[in-house]
Amino acid sequence: MNRMIATSRVSHQFGTEHVLQDIDLTIDEGEIFGLLGPSGAGKTTLVKIIVGILRPSSGTVDVQGIRMPSLQQMHHIGFMAQSDALYNELSAKENLDFFASVYGLKKGQRKDSIRSVLDVVNLTEHMNKPVETFSGGMKRRLSLAAALLHKPALLILDEPTVGIDPVLRESIWKELRRLQKAGTTIIVTTHVMDEAEKCDRLALLRDGFVIASGSPGELKQGINAGSMEQVFLYYGGEQS
Amino acid sequence: MRTWAIVRRILMQFKRDKRSLALMIVAPLFVLTLLWLVLDSEELTPDIALVDTPAPFALAVEEQDANVKEMTLEDAHDQLAENELDALISWEEQTPRVVLEGSDPSANSAVLRILREAGAQLSEGKQLNPDVEFLHGSNDFNLFDNVGPVLVGFFVFFFVFIVGGVSFLRERTQGTLERLLSTPLKRGEIVTGYLIGFGIFTIVQSVIIAAYSIFALDMFMSGSFFYVLLVTFLLALAALSLGTLLSSYAKNEFQMIQFIPLVIVPQVFFSGIFNLETMEPWLRAIGKVMPLTYGAEALRDIMIRGQGFESFQLQIYVLGGFTVLFALLNMFALKRHRRL
Questions:
Q1: What is the CATH number of the domain that holds B100?
Q2: Interchain contact B17–A (C-beta under 8 A)
Q3: Do B179 and A79 lie within an 8 Å CB cutoff?
Q4: What is the DSSP code (8-state) at residue A130?
Q5: What mean pLDDT, rounded, does chain B reach?
Q6: Which residue positions in chain A have pLDDT lower than 70?
Q7: Could you tell me the residue range of the domain that residue B88 belongs to?
Q8: How many domains does chain B have?
Q9: Which of the residues B134, B279, B280, B302 could staple to B223 if both were Cys, CB 3.0 to 4.6 A apart?
Q10: Which chain B residue lies closest to A146 (C-alpha atoms)?
Q11: Interface pTM, i.e. ipTM
Q12: Closest CA to B160 of B297, B291, B16
């Protein structure tokens, strides 16, 4: 399997506050990789560094062998931020059309890809409504759709299922699996333990350190734990 | 080009956000109209006292639109001091001697207009050459005409600054700026997109505000309408680039509003509404770093003095320079959000 992401000794600080310390991760092509940790652990900072919005204070990140940040590489990355970054006064379709043209998609391509992503997140019938009339879940889905428009090879989702009901969460995960089958590499941050079980591999983050990593099965087996919760408590407890 | 994606989106947002649209067009028209009503009271009928003036002159004045009373010099002076009269006209060696109360510019101009017309009637076109004095010295007769060009420039500047700054700020607070910076968009493309998108809109805004002031409110205008548009457009771009730049240093809309007393109000003081000739030169130099100073100066050259391009080209270049400078600084400020 080809390597999608390699981070090497990535550290980051805001002012004097150390947010990430010596992160070494490798993520293979086609994986669903989870970043699990409580809020404030540095998950968002790490994904922003991988996306290329932030430049790490030290260390390096390569995506498909290219050093980040790189504008060229951003063409192949889809990012769904923690907040629904949408223009509320515009309709769902207009939002998608804007993001599609930001990625340089031509008019015909835009139309096709908007139709297909709206279908994926099940918003086709609402596409002409302004986003300000959307519920929280609909906005979340639209944000996801916006990240899929340019068919990225790497999809990075920051807390994609926060504030979403179980049914919808299930349907989003189903969609992620489908994208994975199509060859997309996916990084998901979450603080929900049962969601972590759905990832192929995980890294547990706490206070800016990776305290453990591996597949959910490996992590549980290693310490004879029954659930991810126990795994986290085990490693987290050791740390403090 | 990706910049056009932003341009199209901004125009679409304007179409949706009718209220901001109204703020940028209707609000300036409304305030200008109010100011016109307050300042440009041509209908004012002044109270004039005549002291021992020749009968033909007195008759001529009485025929004008004025409340005329004959009284003694002493009474007239007392009443003038108490602001019961607007002017006192006496006669000295074949010429009228006028004392204006002076505190009300519109009354001053009304009295002088009456004198001019009475004089024309008397001597069939020959000037009367009255000897004019002010009780409360001021010779600023037609305030609205005088400050009108500055006001047109100011309102364009003010509303573009606010709306442009706030919409760029919202881009940050609603997370879309970060989202845009996760795409291959360059920082320069974002700033240029904003300049063009709002630029297109401000052309429309400038046409409406300038046309309304000049044709509907009958603001004094002796130059080219096209030049007026050129200057207000450049002023709007400077306001937009300054507003978007400063929005980087505001956390929310309220903090954006806090820039008004710091950035906008001082520009009004130095824009030529107030006479700065008695000010210390080094203090006056403060005005040199303010875009509105140049915009207002150019607009006065065009509208009041009716001058051609050569006389205000420097101001045009300076305004353009401000826009380029602020836009470059903004691209630099965006580095805080993405280094690349």
A1: 3.40.1710.10
A2: yes
A3: yes
A4: B
A5: 85
A6: 1, 237-240
A7: 47-134
A8: 2
A9: B302
A10: B179
A11: 0.89
A12: B291
